[in-house]
Amino acid sequence: MITLFSYPQLFGVADNNGYGLKVFAFLKLAGVPFTHAHIFDASTAPRAQLPYIVDDGEVIGDSATIISHLIRKHRLDIDAGLTSAQQDTSLLVTRMLDDLYWVMSYSRWKDEKFWPLFRDALLREHPSLTEEGLLKAREYNFQRYHFQGIGRFAPPAAYARGLADLQVLANLLSTGGYLHGARPTSVDAGIYGFIANIHFYPIDTPLKRFVDANVDLVRHCMAIHAAIGSATATGG
What we know:
The protein is built from nine helices and four strands. By secondary structure, it is an alpha+beta fold. It has a domain at 2-73: Glutaredoxin (3-Layer(aba) Sandwich). It has a four-stranded mixed β-sheet with strand order 2-1-3-4, with helices on one face. Strand 3 (52-55) and strand 4 (58-61) form a beta hairpin. 36% of the residues are buried.
């Protein structure tokens, strides 16, 4: 049996981090049975990062590595039939989502306009958290943002990066269906992981305004959301 360890849910999605939600959605789309363990403390995780899985005693971290492992070990056909060009596009989109992650995180933890709303939502939905603990997490994220680079941007410049990423996604999905056609592939799980964490986020950031105004991003998000079922459900 596979166990997915990831951050807890928030605002109706199974993980309030794009990477954990990506793996959750992949497991659901691929029909792989699993259990889902929500944790906040990533200190014992591989590279001290969530998500990770335990698959028959083997511990695997990093969302892309997890998905590659699952496809190989369990002989999943979710990406079967993709051309070399489509595989290249999937990799490029995955790398772009890595960039979008930093802007999303910035909007929650760094931007003084939205941080209090995010903090209050976490405290309301997860009573085990404390304001002191969240402030420590915020200080840690500030260090990450500084060394990654996004923390050196003023909010308008930071959001411009994320909005550019979202525009590319909107362009790629404008033909309808999923990224590569009528059936979802692993990259669609990744897209959902991030777009759902923007669309279902009730705080009115520039990223949310863009997503909510784009019919193709919302259509894709809602199609995956319906396909994977309840945020609290487990199993294939």
